């Protein structure tokens, strides 16, 4: 049985290598920071999926009617979107503030859809920190991370299905063991690291965007220090789609000098805007 497992493992490695090469050839794109990633789905299709998801979220989630909160968030979004490219789909950026004080989050979807939950205002305590959050989410869209993640999942699933067919000859327990090992290996070795790479890249893009828009990039570090205080338990980075807050902070600190130069240039151009937080923090 051991020999069959070893032989099947060798077969799996060859198949995965060939599949990876094939997908890279037929659907490889380069992100704004020079990373190579899969993009198997048309931009228009991704935008349609983003628009559908956005409409569903707006239908199912209370929308804030607080004029002060909406003006504050819109002010930050306007400043950021003025210095970044349009969404890959060519749509216009739009933002919705969702009234959920317990949800410490924001998002951006293909199609130019931005969502900000009121709960994030408790952690992003000023305009610079909220700009870091929104800039990060915009980075996901500009870098087409949604397409990359969906493409990676599709490619991985296709590979797993093919391997399952080819390893049926291993028989019974051996086959089950192989597929169990392969399932974990595919997730830890392919899907999750790609997601962590996406998150790190979005951090750096967000840092660049906020600096160019006139927001203090050093506040991105304070933001993640705030996040650390509110997150009582976080999964291991190795088995997480997000980098640990500590590694995030180290990465941001490493690129902060360059961002501060962009920030100073923005201030020289008079780009520093006054986006005033609403009274009571939302």
Biggest pleated sheet: 3 strands, mixed
Structural class of the secondary elements? mainly alpha
Helix count, DSSP H or I runs of 4 or more residues: 8
Report the end-to-end length measured between terminal Cα atoms.
Answer: 63 Å
**What is the helix content?**
55-70%
Percent strand equals 5-15%
Average of per-residue pLDDT values:
81
Name the shape in a single word.
globular
- Unreliable spans are none
**How many beta-strand elements?**
5
Biggest sheet, spatial arrangement of strands: 3-5-4
Instruction: Please tell me how large the radius of gyration is.
Output: 21 Å
Spell the H/E element sequence.
Answer: HEEHHEEEHHHHH
What does this structure look like?
- With 282 residues, the protein is mainly alpha-helical.
- The chain is 62% helix and 7% strand.
- It is built from eight helices and five strands, in the order H-E-E-H-H-E-E-E-H-H-H-H-H.
- It has helices at 2-27, 43-60, 67-81, 127-142, 145-166, 172-212, 219-230, 245-268, and strands spanning 28-30, 36-38, 94-98, 106-109, 113-117.
- The chain has a three-stranded mixed β-sheet with strand order 3-5-4. Strands 1-2 form a two-stranded antiparallel ribbon.
- Strand 4 (106-109) and strand 5 (113-117) form a beta hairpin.
- It is globular.
């Amino acid at each position: 049985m051991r020999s069959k497992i070893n032989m099947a493992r060798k077969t799996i490695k060859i198949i995965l290598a060939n599949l990876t090469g094939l997908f890279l050839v037929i659907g490889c794109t380069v992100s704004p920071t020079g990373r190579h990633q899969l993009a198997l789905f048309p931009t228009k299709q991704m935008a349609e999926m983003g628009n559908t998801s956005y409409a569903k979220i707006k239908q199912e989630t209370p929308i804030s009617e607080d004029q002060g909160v909406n003006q504050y968030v819109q002010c930050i979004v306007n400043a950021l979107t003025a210095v970044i490219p349009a969404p890959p789909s060519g749509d216009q950026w739009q933002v919705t503030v969702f009234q959920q004080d317990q949800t410490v989050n924001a998002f951006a979807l293909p199609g130019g859809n931005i969502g900000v939950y009121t709960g994030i205002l408790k952690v992003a305590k000023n305009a610079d920190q909220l700009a870091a959050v929104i800039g990060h989410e915009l980075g996901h869209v500009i870098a087409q991370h949604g397409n990359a993640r969906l493409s990676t999942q599709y490619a991985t699933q296709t590979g797993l299905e093919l391997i399952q067919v080819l390893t049926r000859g291993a028989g019974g327990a051996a086959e089950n063991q192989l597929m169990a090992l392969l399932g974990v290996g595919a997730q830890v070795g392919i899907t999750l690291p790609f997601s962590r790479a996406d998150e790190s890249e979005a951090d750096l893009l967000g840092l660049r965007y906020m600096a160019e828009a006139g927001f203090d990039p050093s506040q991105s570090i304070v933001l993640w220090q705030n996040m650390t205080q509110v997150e009582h338990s976080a999964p291991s980075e190795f088995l997480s789609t997000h980098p640990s807050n500590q590694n995030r902070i180290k990465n941001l600190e490493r690129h902060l000098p360059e961002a501060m130069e962009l920030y100073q240039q923005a201030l020289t151009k008079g780009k520093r805007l006054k986006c005033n937080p609403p009274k009571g923090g939302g």
